[in-house]
Amino acid sequence: VRGPLHGIPVLLKDNIATADRMSTSAGSLALDGVRAVKDAHIVTLLRNAGAVIIGKTNLSEWANMRSTHSTSGWSGRGGQTKNPYALDRNTSGSSSGSGAAAAASLATLTVGTETDGSIVSPSSSCGIVGFKPTLGLLSRSGIIPIAHSQDTAGPMTRSVADAALMLAAMAGPDADDKASADSKDHLADYAAALRLDGLRGKRIGVARNFFGSNDAVDAIIEKELALLKAQGAILVDVKVPNVDKYNDSELQVLLYEFAPGLEAYLKNYAPHAPVKNMQDVIAFNEKNAAREMPYFKQEHLVAAAAKPGLDAREYREALANDLRYARDEGIDQVMKEHKLDALVAPTGGPAWLTDYINGDHYGGSFSTPAAVAGYPHITVPAGFTRGLPVGISFVGGAWSEAALIGMAYAYEQASKRRRAPVYPATINPKL
């Protein structure tokens, strides 16, 4: 027996490097067939734990950081990922294939990555558990990046228990990712956190300013709040402050960090790739527009390539703004003021019709505060509207993974809202 995941089949999002016969492409034809020269750090840990990497999953190309008008789940290399709960509906993204594959039981475990929403949103849309950990709990080495200030990998599974076991296998420091250095002081026994009484006595803030985007979703979550109380939680209505003060600065940070991060990845993990930097990718897409840009363009790639270096004042001010309002005067402030163990809200709206003309149609999202702060966020299936799954989110402060696992597990075991998909061509309100 090699480890706790011995013989367990795992699928990886196709932006996670593997030094085997599989390519690592971020969904781009520019990297089609390009094999990494070494495993990503989390892949090494998964292999050491005994996991069997059986394939890569499709994603929103470049982790949904290519266009201002993109359609989630589509990539030039992989085409369109479909939602198992209604095949004409979107999976959300950018970990689209990981979400669909977990929902469809194509593997026991899948891995996604998130910059903002890319784990929790497709998990909610596909009726599974998604866990975005604290920034630095998992190494990002060998993952095609968007932004080192927000990027992380995380489990996407059909149960909280599976997510906990997978998180334990992937967590820990890596000399090649300085953000992971602090993780060694915060590792926990995540399996031991799987307690049926994990909600008892917990003070949970209901983030009311993240309700109101969808009446049906709100009604589902209100019922689940009653279940949280029945399991011993103490609920407090709160407002997460200053959420409107970092929308613009978040995008600026992502644009500034994208190009240098991509160039470093290509140099260290794919030095033989035909593209060496963002400008090369842009030129490839223009040359191969019929295959790469049939539905949407590459505005974000162009904007990222035009940014100056990370010593630019605009970048430093944007990053400081993010951390001030998402952390210090955001999640930290509301949790301290109300003595909270976690925040809870709808993860987002139900899956929308895949639409190549108008792009994505998000129905609200609770992903951004935790994403910008770098704090943990777990979503658990909460119910269905017209046959489409929706999730409930638990968000905590830095390094609170074990506590969140306890709360999420207690809720999951009391609710048991997940049910397997049956792959209808379109929505069926009777399901």
Gap between N and C termini, in Å?
A: 41 Å
CATH topology: Amidase signature (AS) enzymes
Overall CATH architecture: Alpha-Beta Complex
How large is the count of helical segments? 13
Strand content: 5-15%
Mean pLDDT: 98
In short:
It contains 13 helices and twelve strands. By secondary structure, it is α/β, with parallel strands linked by helices. It has one domain: Amidase signature (AS) enzymes (Alpha-Beta Complex), CATH 3.90.1300.
Description:
The protein has a single domain, classed as Alpha-Beta Complex (Amidase signature (AS) enzymes). A hairpin with a 2-residue loop joins strand 11 and strand 12. It is α/β, with parallel strands linked by helices. The chain starts with 8 loop residues before the first strand and ends in a 16-residue tail after the last helix. The radius of gyration is 20 Å and the shape is globular. It has 13 helices and twelve strands. Helix 7 crosses helix 10, helix 7 crosses helix 11 and helix 8 runs antiparallel to helix 10. The protein has a ten-stranded mixed beta sheet with strand order 2-1-5-7-6-11-12-10-8-9, with helices on both faces.
